[in-house]
Amino acid sequence: MTANSDQPATSQIDVDDLTRTAATDELTWLSYVLGQANDDYHGSDAPQMSDAEYDALKRRNMAIEARFPDLKRGDSPSDQVGAAPIDGFGKITHVVRMLSLGNAFTDEDVVEFDRRVRKYLGLEDALAYTAEPKIDGLSLSLRYEGGVLIQAATRGDGAVGEDVTANARMVQDIPQTLKNAPDVLEVRGEVYMSHADFEDLNTRQEARGAKSFANPRNAAAGSLRQLNAEITKDRPLRFFAYASGDLSAPLADTQNAAIERLAALGFSTNPLTQLCDDPEAMIAHYRRIEEQRATLGYDIDGVVYKVNDLGLQRRLGFRSTTPRWAIAHKFPAELAWTTLEAIDIQVGRTGALSPVARLKPVTVGGVVVSNATLHNEDYIKGLDSKGAPIREGRDIWVGDWVQIYRAGDVIPKICDVDLAKRLATAQAYEFPETCPECGSHAVREEGDAVRRCVGGMICPAQAVEKLKHFVSRGGFDIDGLGAKQVEQFHSDAWVKEPADIFTLRDRFGSGLQQLKNREGWGDKSASNLFDAIDDKRRIGLGRLIFALGIRHVGDASANLIANRYGTWSAFEGAMTAAVIGEGDAWETLIDIDGVGAVMAGSLVRAMQEEAERASIDRLVAHLDVQEAVQVTSDSPVAGKTVVFTGSLEKMTRAEAKARAESLGAKVSGSVSAKTDLLVAGPGAGSKAKKAADLGVETIDEDDWLALIGDA
Ligand code: IVH
Asked: What topology does CATH give the domain 91-330?
């Protein structure tokens, strides 16, 4: 802490005994130290003060202000919300979404990936791929217009990232201007820090008493996501370009040539990028990269393979979050041994009781690990989900010597135990049968590996986790209402369920005072919060369905479901009418690509369960739910139900289906009165006949391609 040590120590004198002069001095000092602490936390990524100390000083500041209201400073720390640093960045909507990559862990996975790609494309012959290191940094999208860097954005949630333009300008490897570039060019790549620069930075941090970074990735992320770009300037960041986003003209016909073009434009590209003719060559290159891993001077965590032909990449397209044309072949996980000190139970949003291992801290692949997952109670006992032994049946006791497994940024897990080292003091673990948070029964349903608290919203852990999910980025994403604020509001019983968020202003707004007098809230942040809440009364159907936090329903599925039903009333009507396992409403639901019987059952149950449904209805009464609009709703097949039959010659069935769906059509496997269009290739049989009987329009493959503009 850089605060002057000759300033008055706080908390020495009772607030009631302070003189006006002493109070004025202490408020000045508190404003200074708390301001410094904020800067350290948000500005330099080097917090010096513990959270508890910070909170105590803030409370002291408020107590003095309460006693001497006229001494409250214009820059009082009470008026500053402890915003997460990301709140300070502007938001940028990516023109082309920034996605993640699917993973391969074994050679067989790579062979299977290639097989899947060729099957999708209907290709027998071998296909060429590029193979290059997967850099362990953070991805960045750079937008150039007229050859000038105008914008840099992090990935964020893939759709919307943070504006880090000022910071990106401080990175040496990133050109400010380009010659002979397309008018619009988005370059995608990875920001990272070399090992040498990382060591150097940590030495400098330590020398000035600042926090050191756990690994180069954290250091790179902390350095790029800086509100003060001057700090970024002092941090030696680098950048490898590996792909493009939005473009006014193609860079090349192939991935390999596109990378060469990026290099010619002045970007650093990875020298280990290689063109491979088949999976065998890809795996051979993976081994070469793996051998060099330790001497590269920067962290990599695998090898990325990409279909070389960019035309084929376009045909392959994307699943909801990953491209079909690329995969990351990850390096094997890292392992370490340590002592299991305790097992805690965490209760999640859906009531799942998850055992968390508290460990004697141990370094695994450069990262200090002190918590790991133990999955569920059977796992602790040495059994898999079907009751068969795992780890040869070895169970895990508190006090045991256990092996930790860490792969990339996935939560570390305990994978083994050394029984020869079991101490006499070790204790077998009894998995609780009641919820540690609310005392309700925790039950295991038939076939479920997980024990769940039945308390629902009366369980504070579930209620809070549900609320956190509700306001999360993929959900209502309300500015100023994050996990921390939700916890605060819930513990004060201001918000018990999502609907309560929308009545906050009515209940507390007139007494803005009440919110504003609370720790962390000022006049401005309180009224900003109410405005931000009002902004989200208008919400897309997909976001709403996701935000409800129904088990198994992720954001991608929520959007698919929203696209199928269009409006809230159609959706809720269908869910109310559905009978699990049978009938039209059920069939329509499970007919959605990506919605299986398990997810569908969970949705129907949630929408029909009395208390949960009442809570959802209370919420929706405050909202203006927007109809789900398909991105491609102007396509001629949007909203139409299409059936493909017979053999297709210019594309595979999988490709035809994915393409039709990306244009907003619903693809069904059978012809019914609801079918709008049958696309029939040679050999079409009973479906063509049924379509004719029902008067369904039937066209051939060429007509279809002409209709969707792909001819
Ligand atoms: S290509 C459509 N190439 O890995 C996705 N990504 O796990 C295109 N990454 O978000 C990404 N090195 O941040 C690609 N050579 C490489 C990469 C790479 C690192 C990162 C990237 C991506 C993440 C996915």
From this structure: D-amino Acid Aminotransferase; Chain A, domain 1 (3.30.470)
At position 444, the amino acid (one-letter code) is: R
Distance 489 CA to ligand 1 centre (A): 38
| Catalytic site includes residue 640 | no
**Active-site residue, from 58, 134, 306, 657:** 134
Rounded to the nearest 10°, the torsion over CA 13, 18, 21, 25 is 40
Query: How remote is the CA of residue 425 from the centroid of ligand 1, in Å?
Result: 47
What's the count of helices (H) and strands (E) in the chain, helices before strands? 26, 24
How far is ligand 1, taken at its centre, from the CA of residue 99, in Å? 8
Lowest-confidence range among 540-544, 627-631, 644-648? 627-631
Cβ atoms of 645 and 679 closer than 8 Å = yes
Conformation bin of residue 344: beta by default, left when phi > 0, alpha when psi is -120 to 50? beta
Give 134 Cα–ligand 1 centroid separation in angstroms: 6
Q: Which of 655-667 are b and which e, b meaning 16 or more Cβ less than 10 Å from the residue's Cβ?
A: bbbbbbbebbbbb
Which fold, 9-79? Helix Hairpins (1.10.287)
Return d(Cα 73, Cα 55) in angstroms, integer: 18
What is the distance between the alpha carbons of residues 633 and 519, in angstroms, rounded to a whole number? 47
Q: Which atom in ligand 1 lies closest to the alpha carbon of residue 138?
A: 13
Amino acid at 517: N
Q: Ligand 1 pocket check: which of 99, 187, 190 to mutate, most ligand atoms within 8 Å of Cβ?
A: 190
Domain spans in the chain, listed from the N-terminal domain onward: 9-79, 91-330, 335-428, 641-708
Residues within a 6 A CB radius of ligand 1: 99-101, 132, 134-135, 139, 155, 190, 242-243, 304, 323, 326, 328
pLDDT tens digits for range 400-450: 999 999 876 678 999 999 999 999 999 999 999 999 999 999 999 888 889
Residue with tokens 């919605």: 595
375 touches 363 (CB < 8 A): no
CA 304 to centroid of ligand 1, rounded, Å: 7
Cut 0.70: pTM above it: no
Q: To the nearest whole percent, how much of the chain has pLDDT over 90?
A: 60
Classify residue 357 by burial, with Cβ atoms within 10 Å: 0-12, 13-18, 19+: buried
Q: Does the structure show a pLDDT above 90 at 300?
A: yes
- Counting ligand 1 atoms within 8 A of each CB, the residue from 139, 269, 296, 308 with the most, and so the one to mutate, is 139
CATH number of 641-708: 3.40.50.10190
Nearest to residue 364, comparing CAs of 427, 325, 408? 408
Counting every residue written for the chain, the total comes to: 711
